[in-house]
Design brief:
Blueprint: H1 7-10, H2 13-27, H3 30-33, H4 39-60, H5 64-79, H6 83-90, H7 92-100, E1 125-127, E2 138-147, E3 156-161, E4 181-185, E5 191-197, E6 202-203, H8 209-217, E7 222-223, E8 226-232, E9 239-244, E10 268-269, E11 275-283
Parallel strand pairs: 1-5, 2-11
Antiparallel strand pairs: 2-5, 3-4, 3-8, 6-7, 8-9, 10-11
Bound molecules: 3,4-dihydroxybenzoic acid (DHB) and fe (iii) ion.
The site of 3,4-dihydroxybenzoic acid has 10 residues, from helix 6.
């Protein structure tokens, strides 16, 4: 086996942006899904967004220099492949809020740009694919999927997360293809047990156009450490969520505004240095 490159040395905004853009195009048929949208709705949405832009320009007397800087920046976001990153960090959380507001069970959180379908199938009890000596505190997670009436569900959990350096496989170079990506399935009792490691807080790439905006506005680029999940079961609405760790300094100021109190974990240290935790998912029946 060849020596792995270190992601820390070689990850770049352009590379992870290009991967995220390519992945989005590979997975989704976004125009097909809205092909029956009437022109009245397109007109209303486009007009109201433009009205908001016009109002900001008038209110703050935006200059031609500022307009040209905006134009150059928007062009560069595309050239860096950073539209998935920009939209998922600064817009998706409100789409998610609107989409799941009606639910009685878990409401969820943003998907972000780094989901990959068809990760390795690991059954109801399993260990995430990881390198030998993968860094990070081992985590043993006992969980269950139930319906809103409390009945256990035979379903599926897809889990993906960053490593202890904050890097995602298939988006940062040098990591094994399915590192820290796995699919688990529950039986009729709804139970699962997943062994993985604690991810690190994640900094969105700072060397591209989004990083330029963050620096120019005096913001920070951090997301708190998080586990991404997609949970599904027949006859139920699928859940996309993220789970967070208490005490992370960025739980309170997540750049992606994607933390909710119901998504907080409670890991407990065990004598062997690992941590044990429980988190149960509650899915809404379709059409309830
Ligand atoms: C981004 C990365 C994430 O891991 C995430 O959960 C949300 C957004 C990003 O880089 O845009
Ligand atoms: Fe993430």
């Amino acid at each position: 086996m060849t020596t792995m490159e270190s992601p820390a040395e070689h990850a770049s905004a352009a590379a992870s942006g290009a991967s995220a853009t390519e992945r989005f195009h590979a997975d989704k048929s976004p125009f097909e899904a809205v092909k029956d949208t009437p022109p009245e709705r397109v007109d209303m949405l486009a007009r109201e967004v433009l009205d908001a832009v016009h109002a900001t320009i008038r209110k703050h007397k935006v200059s031609y220099d500022e307009y040209n800087a905006l134009k150059a920046w928007l062009i560069n976001v595309g050239q860096d492949g950073e539209w998935p990153l920009f939209l998922d960090v600064w817009v998706e959380h409100v789409v998610e809020e609107v989409a799941t507001d009606h639910r009685q069970g878990n409401k969820g959180s943003i998907e972000g740009p780094y989901y990959v379908p068809d990760s390795p199938e690991l059954g109801a009890v399993g260990t995430m694919p990881m390198r030998e000596n993968e860094a990070g505190t081992p985590l043993v997670w006992d969980g269950r999927i139930t319906s809103t009436d409390g009945k256990p569900l035979a379903g599926k959990i897809e889990l993906w997360h960053a490593d202890a350096d904050g890097f995602y496989s298939q988006f940062a170079p040098g990591l094994p293809e399915w590192n820290l990506r796995g699919s688990f399935s529950t039986g009729a009792d709804g139970n699962f047990q997943i062994t993985t490691i604690r991810p690190a807080p994640y900094q969105i790439p700072t060397d591209g156009s989004c990083g330029k905006l963050i620096a120019a506005a005096g913001w920070h680029a951090w997301r708190p450490a998080h586990l991404h999940v997609k949970v599904s079961a027949p006859g139920h609405e699928s859940l996309t969520a993220q789970l967070y760790f208490p005490g992370d300094p960025h739980n309170a100021d997540d750049i992606a505004s994607a933390v909710k109190p119901e998504l907080m974990l409670d890991p407990q240290p065990r004598p062997d240095g690992s941590e044990a935790m429980t988190y149960y998912f509650v899915l809404d029946p379709v059409g309830a």
